Amino acid sequence: MSQYPRDEFDKVPETSARQGVHRERLIPSRSRGLGLLITVGVLALVIGLAAYFVVPRLGIDLGGADPEASSTASAPAEPAASPTPTPEDTAGETEEAEETAAPSPAATPEPTPSAEPEPAVDRTQPVTVLNASGISGLGASVSGRISGAGWPVGTVGNWTGVPQQASGVYYSSPDQAANAREVAAQLGIPTVMETPGFAVVTVVLGPGFQ
C-alpha cells in the first residue's frame, strides 16, 4: 500500500491487465521531404564530380563522338590552289601589256607651205625726204634723223604733188618693203604703201608731223 492518500487515478484496479503503451514520436512529413532533397542533391554532386575528374582519366568517351571526325571538322579548310599559268598564257599577257604601253604613233603634221622669205633690210639703199607740211626746214631736220640711223639720204626737197593730209612712206617694188617699214618705224609714221613712180624709198612729211 502507498503512504500517499488515494486520488482519482487510484480508481483503476490494481489487478487489472491493462498496460501502458509507448507512443513513437512522429516526424513531420515536411521535414522528411527536405532531408530527402538534400540527400539527393549531395549524391548528384558527388556523381558529377566523379564524372568530371575520374571518367576522363579512365579514357571513357561519354559523348560517343569520333575524335578523328571532330579534328577534321575543326581544322581550317585549305585554300584551293590557283592554276599555274602556262607559257602560252604568259606570252599573251606580255603582248597585251606591250600593246597597251606602246604609244600610238602621232600623226606627222604636214608641212605648211611657207611664203617666200621677205628681203632683209638693206641700209645701203638711199632714202628720199620730201616736205609737204609747209614748215620750213622740216625736211632737213628729218633727213638728219634718217642719216643718224645709218641710212644714206638721197634727195631732200619740197613736195610738188597734190596736197597731203598726213605723212607716209612709199616704195615701188616688193624688195623695198622691208626698208620702207624700217624707216617708217624709226620716224613714227604709220602709213607705209607700195606706190609706182617712186624709184627709192620716199618719206613724204605731211601736216602735223612731229
From TrEMBL:
Residues 90-99 have a biased composition (Acidic residues). Residues 106-116 have a biased composition (Pro residues). Residues 126-209 form the LytR/CpsA/Psr regulator C-terminal domain. InterPro entries: LytR/CpsA/Psr_C. Residues 1-23, 65-121 are annotated as: Disordered. The keyword Membrane applies. It holds the Pfam family LytR_C. Residues 65-89 have a biased composition (Low complexity). It comes from the Bacteria. Residues 1-13 have a biased composition (Basic and acidic residues). This is LytR C-terminal domain-containing protein. It comes from Arthrobacter zhangbolii.
